[in-house]
Amino acid sequence: MSTVRSDDEMVWNNDGHVVMLSINKSELEVLQTTCPHDDDGPCHSDAGCIVQYFIHRFGLECNIGVCAPEPTLEICWALAGDRRDPDAAQLWFVPINDDVFYSWMASRKTPQSDDPESAQQA
Q: Which residue from 73, 67, 68, 93 is spatially nearest to 10, judged by alpha carbons?
């Protein structure tokens, strides 16, 4: 799993969450959101997976990225607020194939002590 911090300490998680979409002409519908974690991941909250909670509740309104629609989108996500209180928090996600976000994320990625590959890239 990798995380990227912005200058204002927003943490972007690129940990394998996937959104499955139904594409019908200009209509997009969220069919399912897949969480790669059990009950101990960074997305765990009292409401279950906080990513699934927000996307189920608000759908694509949480998306701040731009990319061509695809049936399966792997996403990065960030949470402002306390994950234990989802009603007082805000979650945003960006598809990892958003070119601008991916370039920014790759330039900001910091080596993880448990990830030898990211340490070699730094």
A: 93
Alpha carbons 103 and 31: distance in angstroms, whole number:
28
Question: Would you give the DSSP letter of residue 120?
Answer: H
The 10 Å CB-count burial string (b at 16+, else e) for 62-84 is bbebebeeeeebbbbbbbeeebe
Helix count and strand count (H, E) for the chain: 3, 8
The answer to whether 43 and 91 are in contact (CB under 8 A) is no
Give 39-98 pLDDT, tens digit per residue: 888 999 888 999 999 999 999 999 999 988 889 999 999 999 988 888 889 999 999 999
| pLDDT at position 18 | 97
DSSP state of 87: G
Report the alpha-carbon angle 65-104-112, nearest 5: 115
Task: Report whether 16 contacts 52 (CB < 8 A).
Answer: no
Q: Where are the domains of the chain?
A: 2-109
| 110-115 mean pLDDT | 54
The two tokens of residue 36 are: 């790669």
